[in-house]
Automatic annotation (TrEMBL):
Its EC number is 3.5.1.13, 3.5.1.14, 3.5.1.4. SUPFAM superfamilies: Amidase signature (AS) enzymes. Coiled coil: none annotated. This is Acylamidase. PANTHER family: GLUTAMYL-TRNA(GLN) AMIDOTRANSFERASE SUBUNIT A, MITOCHONDRIAL, TRANSAMIDASE. Pfam families: Amidase (PF01425). Gene3D superfamilies: Amidase signature (AS) domain. The keyword GTP-binding does not apply. It comes from Tritonibacter horizontis. Keywords: Hydrolase.
Length: 477
């Protein structure tokens, strides 16, 4: 492969070349930066260009001996702008925070760099990282490379666009209700939302601790173009850091299954219309797993609608008290208005109700723990419909309902702290153009590796979305 095309390689394939010495980190990073120059002006995914530091770091990595080279040696990555990186603004898409310069690196930045990764840029997010779409007054809108008719997703929308368009082999993101999985679904990337306690988290620029629900529901992760890239990169992400006192140093790879893995399969969208293309994606994923030796059984897990809605209303109750004052003081009219819509769609639990729901979280998690003891994986829809258009969430309560209200399979898993992979299982030909359709695979606590294994099995049958996207981009630009 010519060096100029190295940006096409996923992290797994690229690292094999850099670690063997066949390709230098400088060559890998230079190719990613050239791709960024070619496509980012149109897409606005990377909003803080770190090329000078990236090239200097790559040059330093070039001289490392083979035994010094980490698993991500010279692999270009991006970091979301709501995470601390020394000397850069942790703006979170908020104008008032554009000069909040990080005094040190967050654990995920340190862990990626210790593994040999090279950060080439920082990616866009909506204000306060609290939309499933990516736009803000500070950096503007991030566009989906499949076309302007599809939202880029959020809140890690810049990362999802960057990795799928070829600007880095891995993209960091985080997820409190779907912020890794929404952009993965929008762009056709693959990700695994880790469970609670899996990846150490802390921003040194913080002046106060986050609320309890934010601590329990928010996780750090990566988006990739190929599922195998997660097996390569997530072990580095989960390295311990004492600044996160609740991080659990559990190995990435768990014990192998004694026999074929049982998978619960559901098409239940809890009263929301199931689009034919989403159903087709679920059936394709089911067939791929069956062919790979999994035992699929169509069976209903504990009520995801009740769990998801209860979880998001609990989160909204906490946000109304702890976060809304900052939104009112520093947010744009758009985000202030949107939170009023959120509060209408998800009436916040308050007072005694909020305390009781904190307690009931254990009840919900126990129900799923017992179910998942029999079915270690659960294949579910991610959303009942193909991905929505930009700004659909700003179209009143109906718009917020189409974007977040129906996404109960997403935030239910955050509320219970369960890991969930999101992988494309179909390329739908829709009136606006081709569009990836992602499904979700939920796993037992600490078994992200099993969810990724299942994602690989689906991808082996369906194929990765990136080549289709790049061909589409070449045709339409």
């Amino acid at each position: 492969m010519p060096n100029k095309d190295l940006w096409r390689l996923g992290a797994h394939d690229l690292s094999q070349l850099t670690r063997s010495g066949a390709v230098s980190p400088t060559e890998a990073v230079t190719a990613a930066l050239a791709r960024m120059d070619a496509v980012n002006p149109d897409l606005n995914a990377v909003v803080d260009d770190l090329r000078d530091a990236a090239l200097a770091r790559a040059e330093a990595l070039d001289s490392q001996s083979p035994r010094q080279r980490g698993p991500l040696h010279g692999v270009p990555v991006t970091i979301k702008i709501n995470i601390d990186q020394t000397g850069h603004a942790t703006s979170n898409g908020v104008l008032a925070l554009r000069d909040l310069i990080a005094p040190d690196d967050a654990p995920v930045v340190q862990n990626l760099e210790r593994a040999g990764a090279v950060v080439i840029g920082r990616t866009n997010t909506p204000e306060f990282s609290f939309r499933a779409d990516t736009d803000n007054p500070l950096h503007g809108r991030t566009h989906n490379p499949w076309g302007r008719h599809i939202s880029a997703g959020g809140s890690s929308g810049g990362g999802g666009v960057a990795v799928m368009a070829g600007m880095g082999a891995l993209a960091h993101g985080n997820d409190i209700g779907g912020s890794l999985r929404f952009p993965a679904a929008a762009n056709g990337a693959v990700t695994v939302k880790p469970g609670f306690g899996r990846v150490p988290a802390w921003n040194p620029s913080q002046t106060a601790e986050r609320g309890l629900m934010a601590q329990l529901m928010s996780v750090q992760g990566l988006m990739a173009r190929q599922a195998a890239d997660l097996h390569l990169s997530m072990p580095a992400m989960i390295a311990p850091d004492p600044r996160d006192p609740f991080h659990a140093p559990v190995p990435w790879q768990g014990a192998p299954a004694a026999g074929p893995v049982r998978v619960a399969f559901t098409r239940n969208t809890h009263g929301y219309d199931l689009h034919p293309e989403v159903e087709a994606a679920l059936l394709d994923a089911r067939d791929a797993l069956t062919d790979a030796g999994y035992i699929l059984e169509e069976v209903e897990p504990p009520d995801v609608f009740e769990i998801g809605r209860a979880g998001y209303r609990t989160l909204m109750g906490e946000i109304k008290t702890l976060m809304k004052p900052d939104i009112d003081a520093m947010g744009s009219e758009t985000i202030r208005s949107l939170f009023q819509t959120y509060f209408a769609e998800f009436p916040p639990f308050e007072g005694d109700e909020l305390l009781k729901m904190y307690a009931k979280r254990s009840h919900f998690a126990r129900q799923w723990a017992m179910f998942i003891e029999r079915y270690p994986l659960v294949l579910t829809p991610f959303q009942p419909q193909p991905f929505f258009a930009p700004d659909r969430d700003l179209e009143g309560v109906a718009g917020a309902h189409d974007v977040l209200g129906c996404a109960v399979y997403s935030y239910a898993m955050n509320f219970m702290g369960l890991p969930a992979a999101c992988v494309p299982a179909r390329l739908a030909q829709l009136p606006g153009g081709p569009q990836p359709i992602n499904i979700q695979i939920v796993a037992q606590r600490w078994r992200e590796d099993m969810a990724v294994d299942a994602a690989i099995a689906i991808e082996d049958r369906i194929g990765a979305m990136a080549p289709h996207l790049w061909a589409h981009m070449d045709r339409t630009h």
